Amino acid sequence: MPQAKDWSGKIDYSTRPKLAYMLPEIAIKNLYTWAKDETVPAGLGDGVQIASNEHLEQERKAMELPFAASEMLNDLLKIGQFYRNNPILETPYTMTVPNMVAREQIPEIGDMETVLVEDASDDPTVPSGSAIYTFYRQVSSDQPDTWVKEEQEEYYINGIEPRIALLTDTTRTFTLKQGIITQQVTRRVADFTGLHFAVLLPKYHEITQRVLARVQLFTVNVLLTAQDFAELDSTVPIWIEQFKDYYYLNKVTDYTSEAVPCEAELIKLN
Length: 270
Hints:
Blueprint: E1 5-6, E2 11-12, E3 18-20, E4 29-35, E5 47-50, E6 59-68, E7 71-73, E8 76-78, E9 83-84, E10 95-99, H1 100-104, E11 112-119, E12 130-136, E13 146-153, E14 155-156, E15 166-178, E16 181-191, H2 197-204, H3 206-212, E17 217-222, H4 226-230, E18 238-240, E19 245-253, E20 262-268
């Protein structure tokens, strides 16, 4: 209130101000939603703001964000980054080795040996993931013994959907493993809980909620300077001495210059 803009001398009374008790873009239930995404539960993070005015339409979508909400699992952000094209390697194998080097070093190999290589990334035909290789000892001496890749399990990272979250000050330590190599990493935890509209609306729209419960909408013509128009800020109230009230600036339309009145929608605050 102390920073309110004084528009007392800017009202053009050649056109009588109009008073209404409902906003055309407001309903009883105003829905705030995150974008739909089949990888997260329906309605996750959504919220509703209620305007207790029986003259309004029942429901409308006030906002839909361009990102989907993010699910939390065991206090961690769940993001579906990877998927497998073959989740189960069904070909029987006789042993498991961590990587391609270990595969080449298998001792006393027989005429046929089937091996699961956990990390086959050294094989240019396996971008990532594991693969099954079978060793064939050739009967004919003019044919070299050879390994043949029979089946593989790949991980794809294409098509990752954008996600938004809050980076917290909490840290967690994780163990990353690739083949026989392990590494400890400590990272700050990303959290989505504070981005639920059920949290955001009461925290940041509490005043708006009270205003919507008893809407008094004034539509007036005002003469604004170019600086007035450039400094428009809906978070700063408008004071009009003639009405002895503070107002929320909802909308300004048809502004051309300070010599031509434009229309302003003002919502009474007190």
